[in-house]
Amino acid sequence: MIQIFKKISLLGYLATLLSVGGCTEDKNGDRLYFSIEDDIKLGAQVSREVDSTYQAKGQLLDPANPRNKVAYDHLNRIVNKILSSGKVSYRSEFTWDTKIIKDDNVLNAFATPGGHIYVFSGLIKYLDNEDQFAGVLGHEIAHADHRHSTKQLQRQYGLTILLSVALGDNPGTLTQIATNLATLKFDRDAEKEADAYSVDYLGATNYYACNGAAGFFEKIIKEGQQGRTPEFLSTHPDPGNRVDAINNKAAADGCKTQPSGATTYQEFKNSLN
């Protein structure tokens, strides 16, 4: 009886959604059936499942644990500089919590809908400076802010199933999404857009080099690490083209490309040992 009621509730929700005008335009000019409120609900469900998955492996660094305070103080300071740039559309609506997954062998970061960001310790340790890391964070924030994760998941699972996950009615698919989110592949346009918005975000901080993300691509190319390249960098276009695109946008925007000179990034890396 409960399952029947849930199905009726979901069908009723879909019927209401379609009857009141279908897709609506969000702050970024995108038109989606999936509302911002749905994004927030879906993100809350997925982030809880992601947390549970990595906690079970002993890999999620608990922000409330005093032993992790130094690492999270560094991380939150960098994230807040980007979020305070004035360029993040859903700065107020989304959660924007960022957590560290302890795995030094993984160069990756990923975002859920609703602004939950996850960063692997391997990525933090691999990068040379704070500007590069801020560039990668800007890229992931853009994926959430411009709802790339939601769009890709909707293409993959369909609107009805994704809404059922957001409403807490589909634990099997929720587990699948949480498990696969770190390797979610975006299309060419989404990756290019995330790179471009990273430039916008960092440029508006008036602190970081706006082309900070290009430094990671350049390091990957120079060191021949393509085999370890995370999904958000390994998908097309190739790293060399993305360096050019980021630097070209920075030049066109006339934003600051001189590194910030922040001196505490090594301390951040050391705090993860």
UniProtKB/TrEMBL annotation:
The keyword Hydrolase applies. Keywords: Hydrolase, Metal-binding, Metalloprotease, Protease, Zinc. GO terms for molecular function: metal ion binding; metalloendopeptidase activity. InterPro entries: Mito/Outer_Membr_Metalloprot, Peptidase_M48. The keyword Magnesium does not apply. One of its GO terms (cellular component) is membrane. Binds 1 zinc ion per subunit. GO terms for biological process: proteolysis involved in protein catabolic process. Residues 74-248 form the Peptidase M48 domain. Its cofactor is Zn(2+). PANTHER family: METALLOENDOPEPTIDASE OMA1, METALLOENDOPEPTIDASE OMA1, MITOCHONDRIAL. Belongs to the peptidase M48 family. This is M48 family metalloprotease. It comes from Adhaeribacter radiodurans.
